[in-house]
Amino acid sequence: MLRKPILALSANTKVRDILTKAPVTRAVVARFIPGDDTVKAVKTVADVRAKGMQVSLDFLGEGVSTLADAKATVAAYVELLDQLQAATLIAGAEVSVKLSAVGQSLPGGDIIALEHARQIVTSAYSRGARVTFDMEDHTTVDSTLQTLFAIRQDFPDVGVAIQAMLHRTADDLEKLTGRGSRVRLVKGAYNEPEQVAYQGAENVDLAYVRALKILMAGDGHPMVGSHDPRLIAIAGQLARESNRTPDSYEFQMLFGIRTTEQERLAAEGNTVRIYLPYGSDWYGYFTRRLAERPANLLFFVRSMLTK
Ligand code: FAD
């Protein structure tokens, strides 16, 4: 019920200023975002790997407004990949990229984002890592899929996040279930209007299950991006019915959320990948986490009042 108002309020610049400048914020943010820089990110990767899980790293930032910032994002990913390789943590690692962080929203953005995404993908693949494109709000889906299909001509298993809440998803999945196609299915974290997206938790969950069935029955590599116990159980059941082996699909969860469940799934022999955001531009990511669970907001407000 509070999800939409929180997302709408978080777009207000005054709220942004208060939240980002409050001294207590960084401490609360650390639950979801382990660090600001590459050194801390690589150290956290080592911790996650020691628990038998893999990672997908996200250099935080979105909607860059200058070409220089877009280029800086590319440079940050290349530096990260270098550091992962130097620390012998590159095998099986993945980076997650928001195309709006590499220029998608600039004038001529489709071409800029394609070129920048290609640089990151080339750098990752040359070291043995993989890439998945995050999905942002519904206005970016066509452009993101266009970029994905262009890049897949050279790198066929580049992954993409698909949002179950969008009405268009069943149609999009028809083009995404081919051999080796890596698709991360998520509910969708953005404030979407009813013209394009299912409203209400139950409708979104039902759409998620329909999409899961398509992915598990297909020839691709489904990546179940959810913390929802019911959906995780259904995904396991569908995988068994499709005779999938644990290396042919995976569970993905966000850093800091349901960690006991993450470790339980890994201990049972499942492939588990932790989405690991790092960097100083954490506001958008953080407020989406607050919106997903109002209890996070209460915890945050209480921390501010008691400091
Ligand atoms: P929910 O019903 O929201 O949560 C189920 C349970 O998980 C809750 O009851 C609670 O116990 C726990 N939980 C969930 N969220 C939180 C939280 N913030 N804090 C504390 N506990 C929580 N969305 C996009 O739109 N684009 C993307 O590219 C994208 N990438 C993602 C990548 C991964 C690996 C994951 C896991 C999610 C991603 N998301 C993305 C976010 C996703 O769309 C959902 O908003 C988010 O996962 C919450 O939905 P849920 O399936 O976990 O179910």
From TrEMBL:
GO terms for molecular function: nucleotide binding; proline dehydrogenase activity. It catalyses: L-proline + a quinone = (S)-1-pyrroline-5-carboxylate + a quinol + H(+). SUPFAM superfamilies: FAD-linked oxidoreductase. It is an enzyme of class 1 (oxidoreductase). Pathway: Amino-acid degradation; L-proline degradation into L-glutamate; L-glutamate from L-proline: step 1/2. Its EC number is 1.5.5.2. Residues 41-297 form the Proline dehydrogenase domain. Coiled coil: none annotated. Its cofactor is FAD. Substrate binds at K98, R288, R289. GO terms for biological process: L-proline catabolic process to L-glutamate. The keyword Acetylation does not apply. It holds the Pfam family Pro_dh. Keywords: FAD, Flavoprotein, Nucleotide-binding, Oxidoreductase, Proline metabolism. FAD binds at M135, Q163, K187, G188, A189, S226, H227. Binds 1 FAD per subunit. This is proline dehydrogenase. It comes from Nakamurella antarctica. The lineage of its organism: Bacteria, Bacillati, Actinomycetota, Actinomycetes, Nakamurellales.
